[in-house]
Amino acid sequence: MVAGRYTRCVVTVPAAVLAAILGVTPVLAAATWTVQPGGPVSLTSGRLTLKDTRTGAVLMCPVRMRGTLKGGSGLPGTGIGSITTASFPQCGRGLPPTPAMAATSLPWQVNFVSYNGTTGVVTGSVSHIRILLKSRVGEPCSAVIDGTSGVASNGIVTFTYTNSTARLKVLTTGGNLHFYKVRSCAGVINNGDPATISATLTVSPKQAITS
Predict the structure, then answer these.
(1) Between 20 and 30 A from 51 (CA), which of 36, 143, 179, 206?
(2) Does 11 fall in a domain?
(3) Is residue 75 in some structural domain?
(4) Residue 20 lies inside a defined structural domain of this protein
(5) Residue 162: burial class (beta carbons within 10 Å; 0-12, 13-18, 19+)
(6) DSSP labels for 37-93?
């Protein structure tokens, strides 16, 4: 009986008191999501920056992506969308010289993790990433950008999406990208070096995402 009374008391603690005890903030891990309108989306950026964080070598490219988002309400955040195409045209000089990047292991998976109701900002990740890096002509340098190995196709980047601006910001923290299968790159990049990707992309059509 004592145990039963104690259990009922805990369950009926007011939500406001529980929030104060647990330190709950407006940023909450979300169970379900509402996305409007969903459907096909495009993502474009004037510049994506790929960096070897051990050597400091940097490559910059425009990026264009297309994908889909599930529309509606009561949606799970895992696999709520996908990136079906990704291109990196006209990369500038960097690593390697005369560089080209090609997305592989598509579609990449889009996941929503948390939502800040005060700022209207969604936090999420893109997973299953694998990118090939090589010189277009005349240079032997090549590499694979992936997560835990050069063939795993489990690279991850994190992002925030802001409802008011329709801007998706790829973050340099929270991911697991590394360079693998590096060949003839003269120490500019090396096997196992950690990599980051950063970019700010405009999402079209604009999506209203809440949880």
Answers:
(1) 206
(2) no
(3) yes
(4) no
(5) middle
(6) S-EEEEEEEEEEEEEETTT--EEEEEEEEEEEE--EEEE-STTSEEEEEEE--S--S
Number of domains, the chain: 1
Residue 7 lies in a domain: no
- DSSP secondary structure of 153-205: --EEEEEEEETTTTEEEE-SSS---EEEEEES-TTSS-TT-BEEEEEEEEEES
Instruction: Give the residue carrying structure tokens 């979300």.
Output: 30
Q: Which two tokens stand for residue 190?
A: 């090396």
Locus of tokens 């992936």: 146
pLDDT digits (tens, 9 = 90+) for 4-57: 433 333 333 443 343 333 344 445 566 899 999 999 999 999 899 999 999 999
Residue 130: which domain range?
26-210
211 three-state secondary structure: coil
Question: What's the predicted TM-score (pTM) here?
Answer: 0.84
